[in-house]
Amino acid sequence: GEDFELSCIEFGATNGNTTALEATITVYVDTDGGDPRAPGVDMEAIGTTTLELAGASGNVLLQASFDPPLCLGAGGTYVVEMGIPQATDGFASIAGNVGPDNQTFIRADDCGLNEYVSYASIGFDTQFWAQQLIGEAGCDGVVCDCYTGSDCFVPHEEPGCDDPICSATVCSFDQFCCDVTWDDSCSALAEAYCGVSGFPCDFPTATSTETEPCGQDTNGGCNMDVPAFESISVGDVVAGTYFADEIAEVRDTDWYEFTIEERSIVTWTVWSRVAVDNFIINDQCDDLLAIVAVGSGECPNVNTACLEAGTYRAFVAPVVDGNLPCDLPEFPEYVASLEAEPVDGCPGFDECAGGTESITPNSGLELTAGGISCAAGGITTENTWAVTIDLATGTTGGSDVSVSCVEFGVNNGGSAVPASVQLWIDTDGGDPVQPGVDLELIGTRETVAVTGVNLQRASFDPPICVPADSQLVVSLSMEPSTDGFATFGGNNLPSSSGTFILSDSCGLTTFTNLIDIGFPDINWVVDVEADLECGGGSDCTGDFNGDGVVDGADFGFILAAWGPCPGCPEDLDGNGTVNGADVGLLLAVWGPCP
Q1: Which tens digits make up the pLDDT trace of 283-294?
Q2: 47 in helix, strand or coil?
């Protein structure tokens, strides 16, 4: 019921761009008191200020100050807006939490969002912008002190500070700070040692110790001018240390090299009291795109990958904002274990017979860009992606095509996710719309989207026969993730097909081209291995795909060949035209072949 004088706004932001961005914080009065639509429609600005979002800053809390302060009238509805320009090489956005809280809204002209829409309306109902207004009741024109952080970083007469963990850490170096007064040297110690946020973690017993002393760099691997690695064997449990120096811009990275003699499920587990990067990487420093797996979780952080026989590197490094000094108790320590279990095959990487033809819409199969997914709170919901391949062009023109294998890009930052690769015939030859509308299913392979950035393989045995000159659609469906962002793996190289997305949870109930939602330069990588004839299948009439059953998949062949088609196998009555008479003959032999 009182006016409120606004001096500062504390808010969350993130900037993955390598360079700084200028953010604009604007306060509006909402003239109709409802959900915001757009400035000039129902929003009138009453104050604005700018500030810098530092490059590669991660999730941070920032403060925007208003001097003179803004007077917010009693009973009014107000909107706080953060505007950021287009980034050049990273992701910049708000930072927040899962709430519950007041609704968060987004507006982005480049994505066709000319007016504000709520996060909840586009599938992010548990993601909220973190912010608070700082000021006082009544409008007297006096600016408030906006500092809301811990007094551990500010000298004061009383001993100790308001963060007991920081206070205990500082006083382990200088007891004077807890017995007499918290002076300049105490606040300096706090700046050096209290920037680390950690969590409890019980370490297992180690069987060996890292050879690199804390503060040195003898196993920095591919980050060194002359790469050096520390050897480790399957079964080892190593106790190690790492550090970070914010001023010197140094972060210790530990690289352990190991060899497996046969295909195995490899598990690299790290116990740590701070967050870590946990990777399993190939053995080529000039091709670090081949990070084959990424760890997840805090304590322990577990990373599992199915690997062929060969040599690999296990990587661990701290993820901290600021310093992680070697003499800080406990936090610079970790324990890591390497385990391997031999297996016959790797989930998500089928053994494929291959074919004489490699059919792809892409101009290159490099996986250099992550995909686009519907997600809520950073965890992906259900998603399906698709590309189209016109078999009437190139070397496949005029020939039936027998598909035995599909290679497809995956980019999964969480645990493995159940998935399926499906082959469809587009019955009208245009962009895909929706299964049952213009897409007839001819083949499915259940698989799993494994952790990391990978070109996976799905085998079709027996091969799927695709009628000559069809419009083939390849799709990848993933179930919701439990703990990460899972999407397709792609690149920004030219492609003869758009990449299409389908996700009911984001309101995308028909396949939508990524170009149409603001992502023109990201293409899913897909490569189809096939032969230019269909053979070796069933002699059963109507079993066009040779799977031993006359069913809906074979009916799809009839629809794809509909019309004049002399000599086509779908022309069951041999009159040169595929039509309703052939459908009747197909229905007469419906079911398992004799």
Answers
A1: 888 755 445 556
A2: strand
CATH number of the structural domain 357-531: 2.60.120
Q: Residue 463's closest CA among 525, 531, 527, 395?
A: 531
Neighbour-count burial for 582-592, b at 16+ CB within 10 Å, e otherwise: bbeebeeeeee
pTM of the entire predicted model? 0.53
Listed in order, strand segments (DSSP E) in 183-297 are 208-209, 230-231, 237-241, 244-245, 250-251, 254-260, 264-272, 276-281, 291-294
- The correct CATH number of 208-342 out of 3.40.50.150, 3.40.1230.10, 2.60.120.380, 3.10.150.10 is 2.60.120.380
On whether the CB atoms of residues 114 and 524 are closer than 8 A, the answer is: no
Q: How far apart are CA 488 and CA 478, in angstroms?
A: 9
Look up residue 241 and give its two tokens: 């240390």
**Which of 327, 59, 61 is CA-nearest to residue 192?**
327
Phi-psi region of 563 (alpha: psi -120 to 50; beta: other; left: phi over 0): left
Torsion, CA 59, CA 60, CA 64, CA 70, rounded to 10 = 70
pLDDT digits (tens, 9 = 90+) for 293-349: 566 567 888 888 888 899 999 999 988 766 788 888 788 999 999 999 999 888 898
Class of the CATH-defined domain 549-592: mainly alpha
CA–CA separation, 411 and 594 (whole Å):
44
Q: How far is CA 105 from CA 83, 118, 371, in A?
A: 12, 4, 23
b/e string for 544-571 if b means 16 or more Cβ within 10 A? bbbbebbbebbbbbbbbbbeebeebbbb
Nearby residues of 68 by Cβ (< 8 Å), 6 or more positions away:
141, 143
Assess contact for 362 and 525: CB atoms under 8 A.
Answer: yes
What is the full DSSP assignment across 397-418?
A: TTS-EEEEEEEEEEEESSS-EE
Integer Cα distance of 327 and 324 in angstroms: 9
Tell me if 208-342 shares its fold with 549-592.
no
Cα separations in angstroms, 295 against 243, 317, 362: 20, 12, 30
Domain limits of the chain?
A: 4-137, 151-193, 208-342, 357-531, 549-592
Tell me which residue of 287, 304, 300, 403 sits closest to 348, measured CA to CA. 304
Per-residue pLDDT reduced to its tens digit, 84-142: 998 877 788 888 776 667 889 999 887 778 899 888 887 777 788 888 888 888 898 88
For tokens 């967050």, the residue is 275
DSSP annotation string for 521-541: T-EE-EEEEEESS--SS--ST
